[in-house]
Amino acid sequence: MNKKSLAYKNTISNFYLGDCVDILKDLNENSVDLIVTSPPYSDQRKGTYGGIHPDSYVEWFLPKSKEFFRVLKPTGTFILNIKEKVVNGERHTYVLDLIKEMRNQGWLWTEEFIWHKKNCHPGKWPNRFRDSWERLIQFNKSKNFSMYQENVMVPIGDWAKTRLKNLSETDKIRDNSKVGSGFGKNVSKWVGKEFVYPTNVLHLATESSNKSHSAAFPTSLPSWFIKLFTKENDVVLDPFLGSGTTAIASSLLGRNSIGIELLDRYFETALQRFQEETKINGVVKTKAKTNEEDIIEISQQSLLYG
């Protein structure tokens, strides 16, 4: 197992080369605040990334989600970016099957977000159109999880200028939402507000500048969930690190991170991208079990074994 730890400001990002199931077994239980990851697509990009047949995907994933459950704090959240695959003209059910089996593991299927890819190019097949969205499924270990909704509030928008101009009587009733949404039917409470809570649809462009990975998501995607579910100095885990986007987003937001990547070329890419995009000062930190720190200069050939 290869390990390298990179420091950025007051954060540490630990990068591991290897299988996430094996590496996570050495991680303490209840030690991670947030898991954000995009596992290999089903039966796609064989030889480079993925290649798991839809019929085998659930069986392949469950040992991993078992370890995720163990290392995640009771107040933590797991965000899974995953999409279905069309097989023989219809969508395969492995995503729904996976949700069901993860619930049997003890996970709570708490929420589902939609990532709308704003810059997705048009396309079609004989019986369907191109997807311009992907799922981000939220799982938790308990109903009492950490969430900081104010961190992701959005501008109220131009519609409010006309919508709030002439309020009807029904716009002024029921002060409190019965479901805790924050406003309820009393639309008049929106007057003077500059920011409101978002919906569960995220309108974000795909990552066009990152050519080093075939399934990279934009930095803004993990950043949104990191702000929503963690605070500074919390620990974020990406067990399918890819080109390192989650680790980069975590450090830029003042969170510590753990990234695990199975393929050597993506592991090296993640390290390089992290150093370039966080502009670190050439320092690698490794923390021993005695909690003493050794600080050494980064070397392109250096690999620290944990």
TrEMBL record:
UniProt-recorded Gene Ontology molecular function terms: DNA binding; N-methyltransferase activity; site-specific DNA-methyltransferase (cytosine-N4-specific) activity
Stretches assigned to the DNA methylase N-4/N-6 domain: 32-270
Domain of life: Bacteria
GO biological process: DNA restriction-modification system; methylation
Family, as annotated: Belongs to the N(4)/N(6)-methyltransferase family. N(4) subfamily.
PANTHER family reported for this sequence: RNA METHYLASE-RELATED, TRNA (GUANINE(10)-N2)-METHYLTRANSFERASE HOMOLOG
Protein's name in the database: Methyltransferase
